[in-house]
Amino acid sequence: MKKIIIPAIVAIASLTSCVKMLDKLPLNSYDVTSETAYDDADSYLRGLTYINSYYGFVSISDPGSSDISVKDAGQSEFLRQVLVLNDLSTKALDIGWTSDSYIKEIANHSWTNADNNAIIAVYTRGMKGITLANEFLLQTTDEKLAARGHQSFAADVHRYRAEARFHRALFYYFLMDLFGNPPFALEENIGGDKLPKQIGRQALAEWIERELVDLTSDESDLAAKGEVAYPRPNKDAAQALLARLYLNWGVYTGSPRWEDAKTAAKKVIDNGYSLHPNYREVFMQDNGTTCANDEFIFAFDYDTNNARSWGGTTTLSSGAFNDDMNTFLSAYLGAKMDDPENPGSLITAPYVSAEVWNGYHIDPDFVADNFELSAAGFTGTSCTLGYNAAASDRRLMLCNMGAAAAAFDPDKSDTGWRCWKWAKITSEGVVVPRGTDANPDWKYSSADFAIFRLPEMYYIYAEADANLHGGTTTDATALGYIKEIRDRAGLTTPASMTVADILKDKAAEYLWEGQRRQDEIRLGVFDSDPNRSVYPILESDRSANPGLEQNPGYSGN
Predict the structure, then answer these.
(1) Which of 125, 172, 429, 489 is the most buried (most CB within 10 A)?
(2) Among 3.40.50.1820, 3.30.70.370, 1.25.40.390, 3.30.530.20, what is the CATH number of 8-222?
(3) What is the pTM of this model?
(4) 351-378 burial, b for 16+ CB within 10 Å, e for fewer?
(5) Tens digit of pLDDT for each residue in 3-46?
């Protein structure tokens, strides 16, 4: 399937008057868009593309310049910090960059309502993404189209509006899940002196549900599978979000909806998706081509030439590597690269990741508790695979740094396990050669990040069924789905699985994909303090909008 790639600056060009620096609060207040932003049919798609890009872009200029007030532009990316809030807050991820205080606060569950870079980035960018969608919806009504003489492409704009509504619902979902009770505003009740109000977590969950039910209906303008090019969202993306919403409904409202979760997941499963045969390829540099037709339901498209970011999969690849690991894996994977002296020919690559940041690693206890590794051990003083790959879970692309497991220190990146699932290598075994700072494309990752892929729907179905049957599933359909996943991983499947069993398997499948915090909250093992299940509302937003209430457990509520 062909990607639609619109360079960031082109995608934003028609909206430069609307997308201001976020120097005013509240964060989802009205941004004025010039009527000249919509002067032809293509400008509407460009406007939509900017909304779609806001999961991974940080500004209208370049990946090193942020449109929000943060210390480091790359660390302000939405998806990068969503992963921090969801995985660093568990033992699935540790980051050894001790100079960044926000990292230790999230890892140690010691964050407060004071400023924390990850919390600021996700909250601010989530609210701004909603602002962009609301503004787009305001500017694309039938009345606006008629006033501009654009009725001839109204049908296309109706589809764009449905996509904008999906993005708005997804941004609201992230905010509701992470912050509980964020401010809420739609396009019809913003502007002027109006300040957004909170409606409560349950009411927001119910609004998201209504939006998604409408977007997935037969009458919806949202595209069906195959009607728009990857990576634009379709009805299955909305259905997948609905399944995730129902799975966590008990957390959000106190009243579980397991049957609805099963039903929503099954609708996606039955719509022509399949597991990609090779798990490694799901995370490779060309995954947007190899996996777009089977496993990916909705993904964010990164590209070294047109959609560059210091967050996302660039961080997940470069952040996990150091020179020792690079040397080991280049030999282990048989990495190749273009010969600079003989273009068109391949030579052995001395590395896998052209740039190394030496920060991301994993607690050995998390690996031991959740992953099926044969003959696992920490030996020697340098990077090794650390287990018998042929007899272990094929999903576990790990290596250890040679230090004993007992010596693990989350602040020291040369201890524990490293994950190389996001290594900068293609399905043909080719890596990008190092370049110069004058042409920095080589530093970025082209691996797309799947926000929804098929295995999650399998897990939702199985976990929901287990909860409907006393915590254990023996259902042939549910276990059949898990068997597909475990067959790909080279593992056998038991005759029954508890909720804990299912989520243990999911921990292996979804390592570093931003799912673990939600799973631990549902299991009741995330934190003994229930207030920690949500992050605080930004105090800067509360200062600008005095009607906002702080979440319980944080000062000022």
Answers:
(1) 125
(2) 1.25.40.390
(3) 0.93
(4) bbbbbbbbbbbbbbebbeebbbbeebeb
(5) 433 333 223 322 222 233 333 334 443 343 445 688 888 899 98
